[in-house]
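Re: the request from the purification team.
They wanted to know what the chain is likely to look like in 3D before they choose a buffer screen. I agreed to run a prediction and write the result into the notebook, where they can find it.
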Amino acid sequence: MAKCSLKLKIHLVRNFALWLCVFGFSLLAMLGLCSCSSVIEFIRPEGPPDVNEIYYGYRQVELKKSSSADVLAAIHLPEYELLSQDKSIIASAGEKKKGYKSWFNMVAFDEDSLTAQRKYFFLVDERPKLLFIEPWEGLMFNCEVVLGSEVLDKPYSNENARRIAILRQVLKNTHKDIDQVGKDNKTLAISGMLINQALETVLVKFDASPALAVKLDKPGGVKFEHTSFDKGKIEMLVAEDIATVKIKLGSFAKMRQLQRQEKTEPATEEDANSTL
């Protein structure tokens, strides 16, 4: 009962905060300082698909098991997304009409086994999430990658060096996979640049302080400064031959973590964006 009451209070605070935001902007509009209609369009939800529906497809894909048919059925929302395909990659990307939110799910396949080897989820949202949190823009990127022997079997001076090498491989794979399908898809191409920028920023930080890599598998991960999104954080877990990387930038990095839902789909957009 107490837990329920806390959730209700949080929900009411959020709604009140957003109401204050709308009211404030509406007052400015009345004073002629901005357009009321554009403010309302910016503040209110843009409609389906919500983050649950987009993220659900990502969660359904199983590395080393899912076939291209499985992936296509899981990640593609034909009513909202454009499909881009290569002989070994399927990507489904979307953007809201007003352009405030864009996203994609992408899966790369092993050319021999024809099963999923890498999967990616990306979301960027320019709208405010909570009052007084700046920047309003937020970015979320998750991926899971099957690592090859060229990375796993290589000798390293210590565990931090190994983690940094794995992260470099994730960047290399991500860049290559998006390049293969992003030439004719503007959303994918721009998203790829944002992801590359984030990962390269982290690697520059690790080049300066390799010992920070020890925090990658700790709750909260490694925090870093970002030129476009102010602040970010990254986590990376490696289990056997699979690396899982999760990045939050901007408002998503600042939002309070309300709950963690292990092996379940996020219940709300805020919940999805509050879990790393």
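For the purification team: Residues 137 and 265 are 23 Å apart (CA to CA).
Please add any questions underneath this entry.
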